[in-house]
Structures are given as C-alpha cells and as structure tokens.
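Hi Prof. W.,

I finally got the tRNA(Ile)-lysidine synthetase prediction working! I wasn't sure whether to trim anything, so I left the full sequence exactly as given:
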Amino acid sequence: MTAPVLHRSAKAISNHEFAEALRATCLPRYPLARGTSERHVALAISGGVDSMALAFLCSRLKKTTPSVRLSDNVVGAFWGITISHGLRAGSRDEADRVGRVLTEQLGMKHQIKCIDWDEILEKDVNPAELPNIETLARRMRYRNLGLLCGRMGVGSLLTAHNEDDQYETVLMRMLTGRGYQAMQGMRPGANIPECYDMHGVYESGFLDDQRRKNPYYNLRPNKYKLTSMKYTMREQVNPVLVAREIELGMPHTSYLDSIEHYRNAGKKDAPPMPKVEVEDGGVMVYKPLLEFSKDRLTATCLENGVPWFEDHTNADPTFTLRNAVRHMYKNHELPVALQKPAILRLAARCRARVLSEEDQAKRMSHHVCIRDFDPNAGTAVIQMRRFVFPQVPRKLTGVRRQYRLENYRFVAALLLREVLPIVSPEREIAHLGHLDTIVSLLFPSLRRPSEPPVAVPKPFNFHGVYFVPLVGGKSLRWLISREPHSVQLPRPAVWFSAPRLESRMKKHPRRWKQGDWSEWRLYDNRFWIRAKSRLPCKVRVAPYEEEHAKPFRESLVEAKGVLSSLLKRHAPGKIRYTLPAMYADFNVTDVLEGGDYWLRDRDYTEVLDGAPALPEDENRDGLFAKRKWEERKAAEGKPQLIALPTLGVGLPRLDEWFEYEVRYRKVDYELLHRNVLDRLPEQRRIVVRWTRRRGGRTERRRGRSGI
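And this is what came out:
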C-alpha cells in the first residue's frame, strides 16, 4: 500500500455522517413491519480502499450504536463477503489477508467465495483473455453474493460504490450515447442484479419468511391491535338478531364464505380453485457511500489505520472500459463540461427530472385502473380513463393543447411501463419511445390529429404482452396476458427429476418413497414452481399445448366440465395455451392406478442389444439394464400431460405420486391497490374535491369522477 496524494479538503467520514447516509439510503421496504428480530447485513468487500472504509464504518457504527436499524430490522451483525475471481496470481492470498483484517482488527465475520471458472467455461479457456470478461465477472460476482446471502438469510447487501464510481458510470453512459434516464447514474437502492432465477434472493422468499415462527418481517398484529379488532367486531354483531336467526333455523355462513360468494356472483359455472400466492422479498443492494468521494474514504482508512490492498488490474486501461475512462480523466485535462463537478451536476439534474416524471405519473395513476388481477392465469383487466384537457384562452388553445397532448402521452407511456411487468415475461420493459406507439390504441383521447381514428379495437401483441379488447359498458377495457408462444422461438421449460433408480428397484410402485421437495425453479420468468415426486420419470413444465388437450380432458373422466369451465373463465381463447402444464416423459396411467411397473428380469437383456457382458460391479442386480430400459422408454414414449398446476387440475390420484407448489413472481402491490375507490361501482364513486373550515364547521365539496 503506497501513500496516496489526497485533496486538501479531504477529511475522514464521521460516524454521524455515515449513520445519516445509511438511514437515507436504506429506506423501509415494509412500513407496517414491526421488525423486532435481528438480521445480518452483508458487505461486499473486495479489499480496495473503498470497501475497507465501508467495513470500518459499519464496524464502528455497530460498536457505538448496537441497536442500529437498517431498512426494516435491527442489524444483528455485519458480515463481510469477498469474491475471489481468480483472474490474477495471488488473488486468493489477498482475500485471506482481507479476511484477517476484518476478523482480527474490525471484529467482523468474514467469508470467502472462489469462482470456479472450469464449471462455467470450456476446457483450456483462460477467462482473463475473454473480450467480455468484465460482464462475465460481474455476473458471477453477484450470483455468488446472492447465493451466500440466501444461505445466510441476509436481506440487505451493502456495496462501496462512491462518488467517483458514480462519475465514471455517468461518463461511460455519456460516451455510449445513453438517454437522460440512464444519465442519472446508479440509484442508492435496487434489487440484486444477475440473480433473476434464484428463489429467496431475487424478489422472492417473503412467503417462506412469514411462515416461520419468528419472521424477520413481523407483520402480525400486536396484542393491543388484536384487542381493538375484537371489540370492534363485537360492536358490529347484534346478539339478539343472531339468537333469533338461530332459533328460526336459518343457515349461517362465515364472513369469508359470503365474500367469496359475492366475488363469484354470476360466475357459478367456474368452480373454486387453489389461489396462487404472489411472491415478494429478496435481497436489496444499497450504496450508502455515493455521496462521499474516494479521497474521503482514503482519509478515513489512513486516519484509523485500516489497511487496504490495491488491485493492479484496475490501473490497466486496456482491461475494461471503466479502467479506460478512469485513466482518461486522471491523466488528461478534460474540458470543464466533462470534469467531475459538471458531470455530477448533470446526473443530479437527470435524477431530478426522472423523479419529477415518476411523481407526475403517480399523481395521474387513476387514468389506468387494474380491475382484476388473476395470478393463476397470469392475466389482468385494465381500464383506461379519458384524459380531460383544461380550458385555456382562445389565442393559445392550439399551442397549449399540443403541448398538453404530448405531456399526457408521455405520462400514459410511464403508466403503461408500470402495468406491463404484471404479465410480461420480459425482464426489461420497452423504452418509452416504443411505448408511444400503442398509446393511441389504448387511450383514444390522446390520439394525435395526424393519426387515423380506430373504429373497432382489435387484439395485438406488444413486448411480450397480449392485449384483448373487452367492449361493453361506458368505457373500453383490455384483458392483458402473456403473449402466445411463437413457433420460431424456443418454448420455456423446467425439469423435475425422478427418484433414484436404486431406491425403486425390486419394489412395487406402491412401496416407492416420496422424494424431498426440489428447489424452486422459475418458469417463463413468471411462476416459481417446486415439486416432489415418486414417479419413475422426469416431469417437464412447459406451455399447455393444443394436441394434448383432448387426451387430458378425456382422462379426467368426471372432471371434464370442471376443466372446461376453468379454462373458459380464467384463460379464454389463446390465453389458455400460455398456461404452464406438467408433462411426464411417457404414459404413467398404469402407475397411477396402482399397476406394476417392472418387466421380468430376462426381458431386460433385450435392452442391451447384444452388448458385451458388463462386470458384476457395473451391472449389480441388473441396474445398468434397467437404467437403459428407462432411458429408452422415455426417448421412445410420447409425453403425457398430467396436470395444469395453476388451475389445480390433474390426473386422478396424481396427488399420491406427485406434489407441486406454484407461486407467482413479485407484483407491485401499491400498483394493484392504488385505485381502491376506482373499484367501486360508477354510481357510488365519490371524490372529495376540497375541504374548508369555516365558522367552527367543516364544508366539503363533492363530485363524481368519470371515466
């Protein structure tokens, strides 16, 4: 470690400054959570001066404030994680030295994770020579961080990105021609990247947390609230009336049953089905040092005697684009407009503009009302309100109306960008410029004068979303769902393996033991699915196909009408072929009905096709022949549709052989419940315009909101 040259104004970061930055960055995710339990917080420690300063600041804060809170919970302990990429000699030894500093000097727990490139790349490939090594290393770094956070039950990960990193990021995006949305730089808090298919790490795990005896996010009502609810319910019940009804023999149903009956009024042809729960949670990445320069982080380490370890590859301008940008502004005199103060001011202006647009979209969110979200089918019904243009002076009517029109169209595009992720399988939402192309279709009142009017709306696809118009009533509604699968593109699929052959040999199928629950797998970027099976074959989750519809319906026997009514109610038309379906490798009807599965021992010899005899240890009890027989049976057999998991429909007695659990991916609850008043009938939808206090009494002016 060499003594760096610091700016004269650089001073160490105080404990109060860091605590305020941490409090401003790590905002509560669940405001209603009481958060009485302690939870570990992970730190991404590379060994550089910025990450070592972060480790010291967290260690000092925990010592001075033992009950420090981060996000929703009290911090139990800070846990350092170092990812050793192995791209240069001595990286593992350096990680060990970092660990000794954290444990011995700072009193912090530490863990090292080495990346095994042999499992990722082909044989004899040097990862350091790859042209996309920066992107690949970032992906593996975050995936390993997410894996460790998931194992430790960590919900917050702190990184040491600082003001200089923000400057380099904005400058890089400027060089690549990005828009002002990207020019705002890194946000202080976001979901962990590169971990989209890891359950409990990316936007998932909240349901499992709530089922624990002592959940991290305590949303259960306390004793005072339960007592208040009890007395409130007592006041709403008339005991005299209840006694009179019991005396007359009137049937009584629970409150939940009555609500369910109300919701299903007019839909008696659709029987009830298990509700698919919606996931939430995951690991959040916070950057509390974005407001501090690297000079201040260096001064913090020097003043408190914290060593750090420089990576010489960071000084190589040919290694990554970030290194080239860093070399450019450190060794060359840049124009004033490209220097650090100007770029950071530009990022602040872009950030303020983006936040202003988001606030405006939130104020006008009532123009898009989500009427019905069905996680079982992955569909939603949205209703578009008419944008009303205010009255303006006659001389400026044309100019102001055009300006207002374009502004409203931009707000409508922002609202659509919030709605599309509910059903879209795409991870990245379309650019606002692309969304402008469908604004006129969904909001007829925002049609430009040069655009032709649309007489009859028709279904269309956009960015993985299928829009179906529902004509009827006073306004137009749209049923949105996942876009039907294309023949040219590969179909999404996940697999669940069969129990080990050794555990099933020489046993009747009725004696096969049920396996353990598999890991959660993400299907089509929409559904989390796990299963446990004792079927003798793999089970594949893939789209519901039309060719399997008739055989599956015939095999249901008494439940044919149930399947038809569920599909008609929840997945009409093409939407039903976007539902996830479970397929066995071959026909398992005989196994489900309790029949035998094995052949006679001498029949397995035909499977080997005259192959030479194997040693006894390799063909113990005919294990090799039976495995080849099952592989051939799966290869030559025709897949059999055994269940539609989100509808709760499967072959008879399937639940004795195959169990599954399905959850929908995370959905913005604020977006779904934002328009509570809009769900009321039109004649009861009342909006308070203003409230005024006059003469000791309150005056309220009311009005009806139109669509």
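The first strand starts at residue 38 and ends at 44. Does that look reasonable to you?

Thanks,
D.
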